[in-house]
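A favour, since you know our structure tokens better than I do. Go ahead and set the record down below.
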Amino acid sequence: VRSHREPLSAAGFVLGALVKYLSGVGLLWVAVASAARASSPYGRVLRLALIGLVSSVLIVVTALPWLELPDSLEPIVAETATVGYVNSLPDSLALALADDVLRPLTGFSQILARDITRGIERVLLVTLFAMYLIWEGRQLWDTPTGAAATRATARSCLLYILLVSTSVQTWYFCLPVALVLGLGWHGALARVTVGYSLLALPALYLSYYLRESTPLAVFIVYGVLPLWPLLTWARARAHIPAPIGVSDDEERSERHRVAGAVMEQARR
């Protein structure tokens, strides 16, 4: 949260990504924050090159004793890109929409209806997540602190787990939970993240045992209930007066008083 040692932070996220690739999201935000803190384009290139060098050396050193190309790539791809849909919250809602809405309206077969809703869901969510990453990057570029990079990593990891990943296990929440607790419990992000981690355990294991018989209400509660701290935070923010507007009014009235005094002095 407080560190400005980008190579050390990058090394930590690279080692994490070699265990679970989700940690690689943190490497992205470390690189953005590091480049944003540089005072010149040359400095930005130098910082990014240093992070890239540290990351590459670590990957080579740790993987070289066991790496056999191209055979080693096959299990990596099989365990990431071809696992199918497991405990995905958007997929569960998409299947319910296909079975309860699309099939009765169109008469499509279950397979076709589910393929259509899954295809639309994936394109929509991946597009929205890409737009979110751009927004997050701009926010971090404006405030490139260690805490901001930690917050960006926690948010993007949580959103990836909940919305983008097609395969979710309960221990995936360990990374965002650890990050938000490092930022402090009092923030809304910490409470939302911990809420999802707690509800994931009963919801996902219930889905594992009941399979197709899992009630839709389980996924609705799991997806909506942890957002309550955000709603509370939004209501609290709505009652806080805008300090910028008050400051502008005060400055404007002060300028009027100064201008009036100058004019009065000129008339005398």
Notes: Residues 244-268 have pLDDT under 50 and may be disordered. The first helix runs from residue 6 to 19. The radius of gyration is 25 Å. The CA atoms of residues 87 and 169 lie 7 Å apart.
